[in-house]
Amino acid sequence: MFTACLRSSPLGDYERQLVDNIDRSLHNVSQLFRSILDIYTLDSGKVSAKSDVVNLGDMLNEVAHQNTAAARWAGVELRVRPCRRWVRVDATLLATMVQNIISNALKYAPDHPVLIGVRSHAGRLSISVYDRGRGIAAEHLPRVCDEFYRIRHVRDKDVEGVGLGLSIVKRLSQILNVQIAIASRIDRGTTVTIHGLEEVSAPVRVVPKKALGESLLKGVRVCLVEDDQNVLMATAALLERWGCEVQTARSAEGLTTHCDIIVADYDLGTVANGLDCIESIRAAGGWDVPALIVTGREVEVVLESMQGAEVSVLSKPLRPSELRLNLLSIRERRMSTP
Questions:
Q1: pLDDT digits (tens, 9 = 90+) for 44-95
Q2: I need a labelling partner for 181 at 20 to 30 A (CA). Which of 102, 159, 166, 227 fits?
C-alpha cells in the first residue's frame, strides 16, 4: 500500500527505481503466498461463482492496467484489443483467471509483446492471451495445468514462481463452467484461451466511460475498519488517491453509517470482528451496504463464520490492484442495477 502511494508521488529516476525494486520483491513474495492460498481455498470446495453483468473490455483493460509495472520489468508491451462486449460471469473469479494467464506470459515471454483479445462464436465469447515467447513442446501441453509443474529451461534461472498459475486457472474454469485451451509452438509462442463465456446485452443503465481506476472511484464513500494503524494509514491514503471519500475506524466504536462500501479487517483485536462491524453498519443504515472482508486467516474458516452473509472475502497480503478491481466491480454492479 505504501509503495503504491509513493509511486503516484513526484519522484526522481533513482527514487523511482528503488520503488520499482521494492515493488518487484514484494510482488514476487506476495504472488507466491497468494498462489498457495488460492489453491488451498479452491480445493476446499467452498468457492462459488456469483452472477455479475460485466463490461468485458473495461475488465480486461483494468487487469492490464494492474500489470503495468510487471510488464515494464519484463520488457513486455501489453496490449488489449478494443472490446465492447458484456458477459454474465463472476467478475472477480474471471479477472483472477486472466491475471494468472498474463503473469505466466510475462514470465515466459519476456521482451516480447503480449496481446489480449476477445472473439465471438455462437453467442459465446472467448478471451485469448497471445504471447510470442519460446513456446511449449507438445509433450508438455497435457500437464502444464498440473500444480507445481514447470518446464525447465536454462534461461529460466531468473523466473520466479513454483508452477501454480495455470493450475489455479484450471480450477477456476471448473467453478465458472468455462473451458481452457492452450495452443503452442516452439519458438513461435503460446495462446491461452478461455472459452464459453455467456454474452449478454449491456444493462439499461451503463456507467459513463471514464478514465480507469481513479476517476471511476471518485466520490465513493468508503468506511475502512482496520486495527493496525500503519495499514489503516496506508490503505486510507491509497483510497483517497483513487478519489474515494474515506472514513476510518480501528474498532466497532464510532462507525459511520453513511457509506457506499465497507472494507474491514476480519481480526480487529477486540471483542467485535470485521463481520460484526459490517452487520452493525447495515443494521443502522437499513440496507445491505456492499462489503469486503480482508483476512490473513484461512478463507474457509471466515466463510463458515459468515453464515451466508453477502460479503466478499479477500486474502492477505492484499494487492492494491486487487482492492481497486473489487471496488470497481461493486460500484459497477450498483450503477447497472435499475
A1: 676 778 888 899 999 999 889 888 888 888 899 999 999 999 999 988 889 8
A2: 159
- CATH classification of 24-38+47-200, choosing from 3.90.740.10, 2.60.40.1920, 3.40.50.2000, 3.30.565.10? 3.30.565.10
CA dist 238 and 242 (Å) reads 6
pLDDT band at residue 205 under the 50/70/90 scheme: low
> Is the CB of residue 216 less than 8 Å from the CB of residue 260?
no
Quote the strand ranges of 1-60, DSSP E.
Answer: 52-55
297: DSSP letter: S
Q: Give the model confidence (pLDDT) of 259-270 as tens digits.
A: 999 999 998 876
Q: Give which of 295, 254, 251 is closest to 271, Cα–Cα.
A: 251
pLDDT of 158: 45
Sheet strands (E) in the chain? 52-55, 78-80, 86-89, 114-121, 124-131, 179-185, 189-200, 221-225, 245-249, 261-265, 291-295, 312-315
- List Cα–Cα distances, 66 to 87, 114, 162, in angstroms: 21, 14, 21
pLDDT digits 0-9 by tens, 307-329: 777 888 888 878 787 888 889 88
Helix or strand or coil: residue 71?
Answer: helix
Cα–Cα distance, 37 to 315 (Å, whole number): 8
Q: How far is CA 114 from the centre of its chain?
A: 19
Instruction: Give the C-alpha separation, 224 to 247, whole Å.
Output: 6
In the chain, which residues fall in CATH 3.30.565.10? 24-38+47-200
Residue range(s) in the chain whose domain bears CATH number 3.40.50.2300: 221-336
Per-residue pLDDT of 82-134, as tens digits, reads 999 999 998 888 988 898 899 889 988 889 999 999 999 888 999 999 999 88
Kindly state which CATH superfamily the domain 221-336 is placed in: Response regulator (3.40.50.2300)
CB 99 within 8 A of CB 66: yes
